[in-house]
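Intended use. Records like the one below are meant for learning the mapping from a protein sequence to its folded structure. Do not use them to infer anything beyond what is encoded.
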Amino acid sequence: MNRLDRWQKIIPGVLLTLVAFAGSLHGQDFQQFASLYKNPADVKAGELTIRFESMGFFQNNEYLGNFVDGYTLPGALFRPKLTYSPTDDLYIEVGGHLVKYSGLDKPVNLVPWFSARYRFSDQFSVVTGNLDQNNEHGLLDQLWEPERIYTDRPESGLQFLYSSNRLNAQTWVSWEQFLQRNDPFQEHFTAGLTGDLTAYRHSAVSVKLPVQLLFYHQGGEINYGPSRPRVQTHANIAAGWELALNTGGDRLKSINLNGYWLGYKAITQESNTLPFGKGHAYLLEASAQMRHSLISLSYWNAYQFIAPKGRLLYQSISDSDPTFTQTDRSVVTAKYLWQKSIAKDARVAFKLEGFIDVPTGDFSYSYGFYLLLNQDFLLSTLKH
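Structure written out for the chain above:
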């Protein structure tokens, strides 16, 4: 019996066990759990507060195959902030962002934090400085690696957000590397647009149509010349449908069926340094939402697909071996997330994922434990 046949027999039993266990356990995906930015609805005029945002994490990735090496991320993220709201619609934060890995003497990310948010209306707002990364902009894992919340510096730039009963959308640009004249490097920035339109809602059934666009650019006109690195601009797109059936049960809350088409294109074809200039992929996913947990099973099929910010396991190029590529990818993924509120603004979560590379039968898995705490301490209420 080969490895693929063995896992085809084991996986159904594992999934049934998880479903039975999950029934006794508020379910959200990990991106929603790891949301730190304060909800605008909680902002009150005149309040001067100290806000602490933190997340302890232990993430272990045991990866097989030629695409990415396994690694472990144990540590903590901490953001102390001084916040002030001159009005109900204007919210300002000043502070710092720190990520410390266990076993390292120095933090890997220690940067200042400034963010200002203004609400033009209940539906439309703008953020400048450090961005609102709650729910990781709603991006799929294949386009955006969820671990970036504690491996990358926080996003900074400009962001517009819109939310109504039928449409949720946002667009943003995050400047990752600023460029000055005679700098020996290029400027880097990422721009994106995400949205989902509720096309149908009746009783317990709803259908949403999501669209996601992501652009990654490195270049700059100040120091452009023959001796400089090539200008690179890469684009990803995703579009599809999301069908939700709300069961109204105490244990099983909802069942979701999602389908997406994804695309990749190197816009700067003449200077592209990656092996492929364009590609595409399909993603089918079924999930069940429990009272405290979420379980999902998905199938990924890709052709020459690259996403510079996406999860490495799903790409057609290798991170561990730059010379290795695989035109066609096929991956089956099973995920389980349990999370629970343990106090006001405090949550704990456990995540388990399994991945099967269908052509080779290689089985990879990851698991993580997370503790999130957001607290506001009122210093004063300032009156105008």
